[in-house]
């Protein structure tokens, strides 16, 4: 009797899971509790495998998204999928990773996204000095649990892969810039640094849930800094005892 009940239970669960994963995604979206900031259009396929021609997050088009469901996560009460996104993005954004929805809300893990550095500059507050920015910015998210407007918890790393920055006087070789990112209750913090034979620097950034930011940074010229730039340092406030020039910014995105 017990074996029959177990067999029936397995068959029922198999039927339910099969029905869910083969359900047209256009039908499933009518009942899914998606965040208000997320909009999907041109959706086709099933929950198991499909794509959306355009996905918009907080009014920004991040392009086409394709997904394949991770069926094993259904047994843990989560709907998780492996995704690829970015084709047709307004930001030339590209990425891949895992996103899902569980009892605690939306989340992402093992996600990598890349965007041209020029696009980041266009979205950021205006710089006090015109700079030639190139390269790509890559965001790696180890784990991120969403809560409006940014997150409940999260951690990852941001890397700006570049060689130099163009200034009105000379190009400055900086090399890659690496920052560790953490988020608690929608307060995002970033701590980063870079090192080259021309300059070294570190920075700290805090962005709160009101879109207000505070940034502190310092840089220190190295032996091979271009003379045209080194000569301009005399116009800055004097460096500290370690030869570091410090500055800070605050404002609103």
Question: Which helices and strands appear, and what pairs or packs with what?
Answer:
Elements: H1 2-21, H2 25-28, E1 38-45, E2 49-57, E3 60-61, E4 64-69, E5 79-87, E6 94-102, E7 105-116, H3 117-123, E8 136-145, E9 153-161, E10 164-166, E11 171-173, E12 177-184, E13 187-195, E14 199-207, E15 212-221, H4 227-230, E16 245-252
Antiparallel strand pairs: 1-2, 2-3, 2-4, 4-5, 5-6, 6-7, 7-8, 8-9, 9-12, 10-11, 12-13, 13-14, 14-15, 15-16
**Structural shape:** elongated
Radius of gyration, CA atoms, in whole angstroms: 23 Å
- Cα-to-Cα separation, first versus last residue: 65 Å
Number of strands: 16
Q: Note the beta-strand portion.
A: over 45%
Q: Could you report the average pLDDT, rounded to the nearest whole number?
A: 86
Poorly predicted sequence stretches spanning 5 or more consecutive residues: none
- Our count of helices gives 4
Largest sheet: 14 strands, antiparallel
H and E string: HHEEEEEEEHEEEEEEEEHE
The percent of residues in helical segments reads 10-25%
**In terms of structural class, how would the helical and strand content be classed?**
mainly beta
What would you note in describing this structure?
- By secondary structure, the chain is mainly beta.
- Helix content is 14%, strand content 49%.
- It is built from four helices and 16 strands.
- The protein has helices at 2-21, 25-28, 117-123, 227-230; strands at 38-45, 49-57, 60-61, 64-69, 79-87, 94-102, 105-116, 136-145, 153-161, 164-166, 171-173, 177-184, 187-195, 199-207, 212-221, 245-252.
- The strands form two sheets. Strands 1, 2, 3, 4, 5, 6, 7, 8, 9, 12, 13, 14, 15 and 16 form a 14-stranded antiparallel beta sheet that branches. The protein has a two-stranded antiparallel ribbon with strand order 10-11.
- The model has no long low-confidence stretch (mean pLDDT 86).
């Amino acid at each position: 009797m017990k074996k029959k009940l177990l067999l029936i239970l397995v068959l029922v669960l198999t039927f339910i899971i099969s029905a869910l994963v083969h359900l047209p995604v256009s039908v499933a979206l009518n009942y899914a509790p998606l965040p208000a900031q997320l909009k999907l259009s041109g959706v086709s396929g099933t929950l198991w495998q499909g794509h959306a021609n355009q996905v918009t997050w907080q009014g920004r088009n991040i392009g086409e998204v394709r997904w394949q469901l991770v069926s094993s996560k259904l047994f843990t009460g989560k709907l998780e999928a492996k995704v690829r996104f970015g084709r047709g993005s307004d930001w030339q954004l590209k990425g891949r990773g895992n996103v899902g929805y569980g009892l605690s809300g939306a989340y992402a893990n093992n996600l990598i996204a890349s965007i041209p550095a020029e696009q980041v500059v266009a979205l950021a507050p205006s710089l006090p000095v015109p700079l030639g920015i190139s390269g790509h910015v890559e965001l790696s998210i180890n784990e991120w649990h969403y809560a409006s407007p940014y997150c409940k918890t999260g951690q990852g790393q941001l890397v700006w892969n570049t060689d130099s920055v163009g200034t009105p006087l000379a190009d400055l070789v900086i090399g890659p810039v690496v920052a560790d990112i953490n988020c608690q209750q929608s307060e995002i913090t970033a701590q980063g640094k870079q090192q080259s034979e021309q300059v070294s620097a570190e920075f700290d950034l805090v962005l709160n849930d009101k879109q207000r930011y505070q940034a502190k940074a310092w840089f220190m010229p190295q032996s091979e800094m271009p003379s045209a730039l080194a000569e301009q340092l005399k116009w800055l406030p004097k460096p500290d005892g370690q030869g570091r020039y410090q500055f800070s910014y605050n404002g609103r995105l």
